[in-house]
Amino acid sequence: MPALATPTLWHPTSTFLQRSDDYFVQSVQKRFACGIYCHLMSHDGARSPGTLLSRLPLYVGGFMGPFGTVVIVPMFPELREEFDASSSAVSLGFSLYLLPFAALLLVSGTLGERWGRRRTVRGTYLLYAAASIGCALAPNLTVFILARAMQGVANAFITPLLLAGLAETVPADRFGRQVGIYSSFQAFGGGLGPIIGGVAADTSWRYAFWGTMLVSLVLALAPPQGEARRDAEAPRLRPLLTRRMVALGVAFLFAAAGPIGISVLVGVAARDVLDLSGTATGIVLFGGAMSALVLGPTWGRLLDSVGTRKLGLIAAATATVLAGVPSFATSGWALGIMWIIASAAISAIIVVFQALGASIMPTNRGGALSFLLSFRFVGHAIGPILFVPLIDWSVRGAFFMAAGLGLVTTVVIATFREQD
Q1: How do residues 292-323 score in pLDDT, each as one tens digit?
Q2: Which is it for the CA torsion 104, 188, 271, 260, positive or negative?
Q3: Which domains occur in the chain, in start order?
Q4: 8 Å CB contact between 111 and 120
Q5: Residue 280 in contact with residue 406, Cβ under 8 Å?
């Protein structure tokens, strides 16, 4: 096993950790709710209760995709034991959620615009709830993976339509800020997922999927505005297959397989190398998500002021350097702190690409955004397949090889011209 020492400052049976988990999570959640509310109310156009309430379901819905994706990361050991499977086999529950998700994103945004955002998102929330029941009741790994794939199919229609709907509710000069807030809610979902998954792993991992079922049913009650557009054209890929769009997609893919997707390696290293509990691993991952949550609005404002190219270049280069640093951690505390720092730069990359996707093609925002997001989630699916098996060979090797993929993203952004 690689030479990361067993933690001494943060052991899964630590009395301090047992007493502090609930306080820590509740404190962060309270600060999150207060911070987001104050941020929303601080901007022109957000002071009206009607405006705030109309956007809130879009923000809240944004957390569902990351939540469902990462909820299984802290429970890999329990899934291995339950299904008598290897780490590589269990990781397919992560990758095969993302592959159909990524494939359908190529057309889901445009299809959703044609069918109507409201009807499409409500229906896919209900499909997500049904798939969650399948995961919770799965008698074997095959059924579990198929149910996870169905979750990915449903989520492919939710993510682009929410952000496309948001783009039409705000002025162009304030859109970056709203994307930052939306990204903060996504970060909260990405943070809450490991907490729920970790606690479930320490009790019964199936509880996590009953939880995703309940959340999906609640969100189905408040889909975004947008009726069917009978005159909308059928989805076509050709208008999206420009050199510029494909280059941005490839850049997003490499970022997702590398620096953005490094959270999976953090979770695996926490459980298998540092021997942390599921709950402790969830808290480590939650810290990184909170870093992204707090900084999301800041990155959005910075994007409005300096532009996508400059912010994207700085973020990609910084994330490439920092993403491998958590591999040096010898305790849970150290891993958590290193992951918080790396997540700050990683979150800026996500804000940049989501803003590009929702604004680069105004006549088909949903289609352009879903096209770019499909590349992102192919990267997320590929990353664990490539790098999780390498942890048994070298923890630092796995982390730094993944981080190095960010160099491709940096080069593509360096050649990007905003005026094109």
Answers
A1: 778 877 888 888 888 778 888 888 899 999 99
A2: positive
A3: 53-414 (1.20.1250.20)
A4: yes
A5: no
